[in-house]
Design brief:
The protein is an alpha/beta fold and 267 residues long. 36% of the residues lie in helices and 17% in strands. It contains eight helices and eleven strands. Helix 1 crosses helix 2 and helix 2 runs parallel beside helix 3.
């Protein structure tokens, strides 16, 4: 599968497949076990693909509270789950282990993903404490594993956190491309499911000057997608596709279909 929707002629929709809480995390369902985690993700994938999304990204949003350094058991579990569902995928897919960029790249390499989303750069005051990601290590891992085609999507203003970098977001976006080799820039709202600031999204797009795609990373819905797609290269969407618009619910097939029908009319 080719990660071809960076084509500027197409506004891409990357849909989230949220994996349930995995072994070792507080909310893990030991009774359901790994079998339930796989079956739940398969159900969401079917609805997302039938609805017409362009790509799917697997994330461990349910592993609250989040780790800044992945645990061995959760990396093994996430790798196992994505590998188990891969045969049914008809669209490009990516992974995001919250919040460890090196673990994310390792999982992506193991399962043959097309892209990774993470916080690769910056310093943040966050719910998880002071957050200072290491960008150099995962990029060197990508090179050493021979995964040069793996696209790295840089989320430059993290959810659940406040940037301690006082540079304007446009400068941070441009710097991430120049110094850290970002393949795409993502602009987020303050928390999962909340929209990115429209002025920040536009500032990042203008600063990048078309060097790489810029995506809205959170809070996109059927009511604001027109405005988002008029500025951004696409969006990553999870919460709006869920039953009742609740992040922790299963995917609602009718929501996906309505949203994608509207997006198809915009591109």
């Amino acid at each position: 599968m080719i990660f071809d929707f960076f084509d500027k002629k197409k506004k891409a929709v990357i849909a989230m497949a949220h994996i349930g809480a995995m072994p070792g995390s507080p909310l893990y369902d030991a009774d359901g076990g790994m079998e339930k985690l796989v079956s739940d993700v398969l159900s969401d994938i079917e609805k997302l693909q039938d609805g017409g999304v362009d790509a799917i990204m697997f994330g461990n949003e349910n592993d609250r509270p989040y780790l800044l350094k992945a645990s061995t058991e959760s990396v093994a579990a996430m790798t196992n789950i994505v590998a188990a569902v891969k045969p049914v995928l008809k669209v490009p897919f990516g992974v995001n282990y919250l919040w460890d960029p090196t673990a994310s790249v390792a999982i992506a390499a193991a399962v043959g993903a097309s892209f990774v989303r993470e916080i690769f750069t910056g310093v943040f005051a966050s719910d998880m404490g002071v957050w200072a990601p290491d960008c150099a290590t995962p990029l060197r891992m990508r090179r050493n594993l021979g995964c040069d085609n793996l696209k790295l999507l840089f989320n430059i203003n993290a959810e659940f956190a406040h940037s301690l970098d006082l540079r304007p977001i446009g400068l941070r976006a441009k710097s991430a491309v120049f110094s850290s080799l970002a393949d795409a820039i993502l602009v987020s709202g303050p928390i999962t499911g909340q929209p990115a600031d429209g002025s920040q999204l536009r500032e990042a797009v203008e600063a990048i000057e078309g060097a790489v795609p810029v995506f809205a990373n959170t809070g996109v819905n059927i009511d604001n997608v027109d405005d988002v797609m008029s500025v951004a290269s696409g969006c990553i969407i999870g919460t709006h596709f869920k039953v009742d618009g609740n992040t922790w619910n299963p995917v609602d097939a009718s929501r996906v279909k309505r949203f994608m029908d509207k997006v198809d009319g915009l591109r």
